[in-house]
Amino acid sequence: MKRLLIGLLLFSTLFFMPGCSISPKQPALHDFGLPVSTPTDKTPPTVTVDAPTWLWDNRIRYRQLYASSTRVGFYALDLWIAPPPELFEQLLIAYGNTRNYSLVIRLQDFEQQFETPNRARVVLRFSVDAYSDNNHQKVGTQAFYLERPSATPDATGAVNGFATLTRQATDKIQSWLAGLPDK
Hints:
Blueprint: H1 2-16, E1 28-30, E2 47-50, E3 59-64, E4 72-80, H2 84-95, E5 102-116, E6 119-131, E7 138-149, H3 155-178
Parallel strand pairs: 1-4, 2-5, 3-5
Antiparallel strand pairs: 3-4, 5-6, 6-7
C-alpha cells in the first residue's frame, strides 16, 4: 500500500507540475507554400477544380505499392489545411495567367506512392478544359500526368513534393494555354 501511495504521489507530482503536461501531439497543417502574388487591379481568372469525393478531405494520402497497390493510407499527424482540390484551385487563381480562358480542371490522382519502404514519389494527374470568355465554347482539352520523387519517404517528402509539383502543373497549364489559338 505504501508503494502504491508513493507511486501515485510521484505520478501526480510529475503530471501536474507547471510546464510538464502530457498532451496528445497536434497534427501539423500544410499547404503548397506562399502563392504567387497577383495584381489587385486584375480580375481573377475563373478556375474550377473538380475531383472525386475521396480527394475532398484534408488527409495526406499515400499508397504502398510494394505491399498492397489497392490499399490507401493516410498520415495521422500531417494534414492539408484544406482539401487538395481547393488548394490547387487557389494556387491557380493566385498564379493568375489563364489568357482570359475559363478553366475547368478535373483532378484524378493526388497521392504519394511508395515503390519500396525507402523510396516514394508524388503523383498528380488531372485534365483541363479551357473555355472562351462566354463559357459556352470549349477551346481545348489537355490531360496532364506529373510525378516527382519524394525527397524523403514520409509526410514531409509528400508535402514538399506536392508544393513543387503543383507549381510545375501551373507552368504546364500556362504553356498549354499559350499554344491555343487566339480567340
